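Q: I'm writing a short explainer about LicD family protein for a general audience and would like to include a description of its predicted shape. Could you first generate the structure from this sequence?
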Amino acid sequence: MDSKSSLYKLTDDELKKVQDIQKELIYEVKRICEKCGIHFCMVGGTMLGAIRHKGYIPWDDDADIGFLRTEYEKFRKVCETELNHKKYYMQDLRDTPGYRWGYGKLRRKNTEFVRLNQEFVPYEQGISIDLMPFDNVPDHWLSKRIHFFCCFLYRKIFWSEVGSRSEENFWKKMIYKIMRCLPMKMVIKRYQRFIDSGCGKKTKLVRILTFPTPKGVYGYERKWYTNLSLYRFGDMQLPGAKDYDAYLRVKYGDYMKLPPAEKRKVHPISKLTLPEE
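A: Of course. Here's the predicted structure. Afterward I'll give you a sentence or two in plain language.
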C-alpha cells in the first residue's frame, strides 16, 4: 500500500523538548564512553552547531555522534551492560529486526518521533540520536571508486523498503520494488563482509558506508576523527575535530554562513510523542 502519510509540524516548544531529550542521549553516550575508554566525537550538523552556535543549530532536530568502526563495536557491546535500559535503547542493523540503516541509533523510551512514510517499520521509533560508524576507504584510486559504488548500492538497497512506497518517480519506484525483494538476511551478511573486508588497515580516508558524501568526496580524513579537541555544546564539553575548519569546509562549504530559511533542513515526521512530565 502506497498511501501518503500526513506531515506533523513541530512547534518551537516541541523542537526544544526534542533537542533536550537528544542532549540526554548524548550525555548517556559520553558517560558510557568515558567510563569504558571509548573514543567518540561530534560529526555532521552537531559539529557544525558546536562551532557556529555553541550548541544545537536552532532548527536542527537530530544529533550525530561518530566512532571509528572499532570504537563503535566496543560501544555496541558495552551497551548490553552499561546502558541505562530503563530509559534508553540502542538499535543496530544486526540486533533490531526490520531495521535497515547502516548506522546505529540510541533512542529514548516512552517517546515517538515517527519519520514520514516510515510508519510501517516493525521497530520502535523513539526520539533518537545517530551513532555513526566510520569505516575505511581504500587508498588505491580504482578500489576507491569501486568501494564508492558499492556504498551507493547498499544505501539504495537499505532504503528500498521506504523508497518503494514513497518515491514519486515511476522508474525509480520500480527499481526500489525490485531491490526490496532481496532477502535481508543475505544482504546483511554481505554487508558485514563488505565492512570486514576493509578492517585491519589504516587508510587515509574513512566514511559512513551507507550515508551520502558531498559531490566528489570519497571519504573524510581519518585525522578528523582521531585528532580531537573539546568544544562547547550547550552545557557539555564534547570532542570534535581539532581541525574543524578543514572538516566543515569539506562537509558544508561556507559553513559559517546561515542558509536561507527554505534550505534549513528538518526531518519530516508524522507523529511525535514526548515523555510525560
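A: For your explainer, you could say: The two ends are 37 Å apart (CA to CA).
Q: Perfect, that's easy to follow.
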